[in-house]
Protein: Ribosome-associated heat shock protein Hsp15
Organism: Sphingobacterium nematocida
Amino acid sequence: MASENEKLRIDKYLWAIRLFKTRSLATEACKAGRVKLNGSNVKASYIVKVGEIYSIQKGIERKVILVTGLLERRGDAKIAAAHYTDQTPVEDTYGFKSTFHAPVLKRDRGTGRPTKRDRREIDGLQSSEWWEEADKN
């Protein structure tokens, strides 16, 4: 474990607290702008300080963490959880709805591939206007 006055890079910290599986994935996230401090991107070499709040986007998942301690080496999950506080609001866990939550339209078996006309009708059904009309009825 690192003491409070020791210097620790953000990519190494995110790897040590088990937010990323490898340190190189944490570095890539920093380079891609998915790790932010006060709304601005953070480089992988940024020095972590206790008390700072970071926003991390990992796929469609978003996390907001508060640094409560520095951890230089990767350990078990109990030790890692003691070095940060998850402050992610429940509604912000996912940035947008997954395609798994979208309604699925089924076609009868054996009808073949949809024609252009069928496809346009399907797209029309999936538009928000159609769903609003369906909710009214």
The first strand starts at residue 35 and ends at 37.
